[in-house]
Design brief:
Elements lengths: L5 H15 L5 E7 L6 H11 L10 E7 L4 E6 L1 H4 L8 H12 L3 H19 L15 E2 L4
Parallel strand pairs: 1-2, 1-4
Antiparallel strand pairs: 2-3
Helix pairs in contact: 1-5, 4-5
The chain binds calcium ion (2 copies).
One calcium ion binds next to helix 1.
Length: 144
């Protein structure tokens, strides 16, 4: 799967690691070529497949993006939904869209990861004994 080259993957991995230094929330990126069905449903399906509901504080966040048809969604686990206001992710999505519209997929993801971290740290500050509960690597969808 050659959606992103090594360097791009490294940029995303670094962005996730950096964001997770300020929050105990766990951010994952999942990409695939095309989105079959509503982006939100795909995101929920991958969230479960990737075992993202297993974090201690139930504060995993998945940013899903389909590369060719430009659908994306952000979902947080129930620990987040319980404490944040509705429309919590809207400003992050807006900022990502600005990049995606220009075809800047990696920059858009980096921006989203950064902002998600900023948003999360108010509710889930990083603790000194933090564990990297979910991989910082990109997860790829089912398509080859
Ligand atoms: Ca962590
Ligand atoms: Ca992580």
């Amino acid at each position: 799967m050659n959606i992103f080259n090594e360097q791009e993957q490294e940029r995303i991995r670094e962005a996730v690691a950096a964001a997770e230094r300020s929050t105990s929330g766990e951010i994952r990126i999942c990409v695939e070529r095309t989105c079959k069905g509503p982006a939100m449903e795909r995101a929920i399906s991958y969230f479960n497949k990737l075992g993202m509901a297993k974090t201690k504080l139930r504060n995993g966040v998945l940013i899903y993006l389909s590369i060719d048809d430009h659908h994306f969604a952000i979902i947080g686990d129930m620990g987040i939904d319980k404490v944040v206001p509705p429309n919590f992710w809207d400003s992050t999505k807006e900022a990502m869209l600005t990049h995606f519209r220009k075809g800047e997929l990696v920059a858009g993801l980096e921006k989203g990861i950064h902002l998600a971290g900023e948003q999360l740290k108010k509710y889930f500050p990083n603790l000194s004994d933090d564990v990297d509960e979910l991989s910082n690597d990109i997860a790829y969808g089912e398509e080859k």
